[in-house]
Design brief:
Elements lengths: L28 H28 L6 H5 L1 H13 L9 E2 L5 H10 L40 H11 L5 E6 L6 H12 L4 E7 L8 H4 L5 H7 L3 E6 L3 H13 L4 E6 L21 H10 L3 H8 L13 E6 L1 H14 L3 H7 E5 L3 H4 L1 H7 L4 E3 L4 H11 L6 E7 L7 H9 L4 E6 L30 E4 L4 H11 L5 E5 L5 E4 L20 E4 L5 E4 L1 H16 L5 E4 L8 H8 L3 E9 L5 H10 L5 E7 L10 H5 L3 H12 L1
Parallel strand pairs: 1-2, 2-3, 3-5, 4-5, 7-8, 7-9, 9-10, 10-12, 11-12, 15-16, 15-17, 17-18
Antiparallel strand pairs: 6-13, 14-16
Length: about 625
């Protein structure tokens, strides 16, 4: 029986569609009881189907959609009661709260409830952020955190005088986009209503700790909004404030205080509630709620394993995103405290656990700043610290957010800043968050002029090379961007079966590396694409096609010696997970032609929106071993 044929083990038919008029600002006993029952049903369902993501290893976010169930239930009643008064979309600026969108799509009959148990699974069309046109019933794409408010300002203008509603969060409100959106909404007196979950929890900590003095409510008041504060778990207080917001003219923010994941044992109020609920915690919750069928379903899920094996790679899996931080921590530990304090500043953007920066904080807390969800400001602070010779900033975030920092990168270059940047979650591997979180356009960081201050882009292939790269470039001047993936990567082996990047390996910036020789031409790759390309090369050799493999760990520097070698070969194929339109392949052919070379040439890269899941993203884009082999055979024919 397929997942879509499996009965959803929580009865969503128990949801009682309710019609409420925001002009009537108090609830009857019957309305209150119905709302509370709906909220509890929604929370049970969210706990259950997000936990299926935990059980399958694809992750997901539970606390945010669980938190905002009261606001969503009330908005649903408003939309049903006064459909002509609203743009009836549950816009949400915290896109990782996608479970809200999927649940409401199921309740409205647009999405089979049975499909919810495939949350974030590959090819299930339920990725980690909502994507318009992909999932039935989803009515917008949220993009990355804090990008929605500016967008719905335009929606409000287009649909005036209807009310446009957006679910917000204290994390999203840290983004600079929202400050601009607030001022615009006030200046234009837009009928935009924000419902902000102020739970004092983000991925890496508590805003009250790392941003002392910051207040969501006071900030929005300063921009000119009417702000209505209260307890998000007091249904009558919440309902009254939401009615007041809806019936008022102009932009209003309803700020709802509550603990993250309130009522969930072991998670309430902690950062663990931000991500997907662990299966054991979900089982405890569901058992207490008498959801026995949901318990049985969860207990029966087996985590899928990648069936692929890769020739040319070992069995040592390394997490490069953590190795970056571990290596920097070792370097810092070799300095005396006074030297560290004077010469290095590390600024995190609420992703220290994901980017490996937590190791730096633990090793050298005196040089560490938890900067919050403010990527542009945090990068610039690191760059400003690194303006003087002998000083450098360290900065880290996800590669998808690099695009947000382009202007700041230019300013850092113009000011001759020294910054070591770690952009993790590059490419597409293990990215169930899907398209908006793909780290595809990393080459944008190399946006200076030929005579500008030096910029270098590095993408190590395994953990040993990551260690070598960071050790080599740590003290270099200029802007250094080091990329890593969310996924772990295996160790690369030489043709004798030994670690290619072993104890005697020394990284040389700007130099390409021959992983395998070949007479039929070469595949050029890097990062997490390299071990897949190596597998393809080994299999091709077994079939009698003697193709070689080149690792290009420095992405934006032409190795003239290697270019001559490649140019004189019969064929060159660039393989990468970057955007086919903006990645290495889009440049490499020009580099060959500029030098008078004309081998057969092609390049493979990410070119379609994602499919969810983990390793499944690579075959979906045709850049797995099979896709590489097919392209080589096409070129060699």
């Amino acid at each position: 029986m397929t997942a879509t044929q499996t009965k959803f083990p929580i009865d969503l038919g128990a949801y009682q569609p309710l019609k409420l008029d925001p002009n009537v600002k108090t609830l009857t006993d019957e309305q209150r009881a119905t709302l509370k029952a709906n909220i509890q049903l929604m929370r049970d369902a969210i706990i259950f189907f997000t936990a299926t993501g935990a059980a399958r290893g694809v992750g997901g976010h539970t606390g945010g959609p669980y938190d905002t169930a009261p606001e969503v239930a009330i908005l649903d009643a408003f939309f049903r009661g006064s459909p002509d008064h609203f743009v009836p979309i549950f816009f949400d600026e915290a896109g990782h709260r996608v479970a809200t969108q999927y649940l409401m799509a199921a309740l409205y009959g647009d999405l089979p409830a049975e499909q919810l148990v495939r949350y974030r699974e590959a090819h299930a069309k339920l990725p980690g952020h909502p994507e318009l046109g992909l999932t039935p019933g989803v009515k917008f794409s949220s993009g990355r955190l804090g990008h929605m408010w500016s967008y719905i300002n335009g929606v409000a203008i287009a649909n005036s005088p209807k009310v446009v509603c957006c679910l917000g969060s204290d994390g999203s409100q840290q983004e600079g986009n929202d400050a601009e959106a607030a001022r615009f909404a006030v200046a234009q007196n837009l009928n935009v209503k924000l419902f902000i979950d102020d739970n004092d929890v983000t991925i890496a900590g508590h805003p009250s700790d790392y941003l002392p003095g910051f207040s969501v409510a006071q900030t929005l008041k300063g921009h000119g909004l009417t702000v209505l504060e209260g307890d998000g778990e007091d249904i009558d207080d919440l309902y009254g404030r939401m009615c007041e917001a809806i019936t008022a003219t102009g932009p209003v923010a309803v700020v709802n205080s509550r603990k993250m994941a309130v009522g969930i044992e072991g998670i309430e109020g902690s950062t663990h509630g931000h991500d997907v609920i662990p299966v054991d915690a979900a089982l405890t919750y569901l058992k207490a709620r008498g959801q026995d069928a949901a318990v049985s379903f969860l207990e029966g899920i087996e985590k899928p394993k990648n069936p692929n094996t890769y020739l040319g790679s070992g069995d040592k899996l390394g997490s490069n995103r953590n190795v970056f931080g571990q290596t920097v921590a070792e370097i810092l530990s070799g300095m005396d405290a006074d030297t560290r304090k004077k010469s290095v500043l590390c600024v995190d953007s609420d992703l220290e656990g994901s980017c490996g920066l937590a190791y730096i904080r633990e090793a050298a807390p005196e040089i560490y700043v938890s900067g919050g969800i403010m990527e542009r400001s945090n990068f610039s602070a690191a760059a400003g610290f690194g303006m003087e010779t002998g000083k450098q900033g360290i900065f880290g975030t996800f590669s998808a957010f690099l695009e947000m920092c382009i202007s700041e990168i230019t300013m850092a270059r113009l000011n001759y800043s020294n910054v070591l940047c770690h952009f993790s979650h590059s490419g597409i591997d293990d990215m169930a968050d899907n398209t908006c979180h793909f780290g595809l356009n990393n080459m944008f960081a190399d946006n200076g002029l030929d005579d500008g201050y030096e910029t270098r882009l590095y993408f190590p292939a395994d953990a040993s090379q990551m260690t070598a790269v960071v050790n080599k470039v740590f003290g270099d001047p200029g802007l250094r961007f080091v990329f890593s993936t969310r996924s772990k990567v295996p160790n690369i082996l030489d043709s004798d079966g030994n670690d290619f990047f072993g104890k005697n390996y020394e990284f040389t910036p700007g130099k390409d590396e021959v992983i395998r020789e070949g007479t039929a031409g070469y595949v050029v790759s890097f990062g997490e694409s390299l071990y897949r390309a190596l597998d393809a090369v080994e299999r091709l050799k077994q079939e009698g096609i003697d193709v070689g493999l080149i690792n290009k760990p420095t992405l934006n520097v032409v190795d003239e010696e290697m270019m001559t070698k490649l140019g004189n070969s019969p064929m060159v194929l660039v393989v990468e997970a970057f955007n086919r339109r903006t990645g290495l392949g889009s440049r490499f052919g020009s580099w060959l032609l500029e030098r008078g070379f004309s081998p057969k040439f092609a390049f493979l890269g990410t070119h379609e929106e994602g499919c969810g899941g983990l390793w499944e993203q690579f075959p979906h884009q045709g850049i797995d071993s099979d896709g590489i082999m097919a392209k080589v055979k096409e070129l060699a024919s």
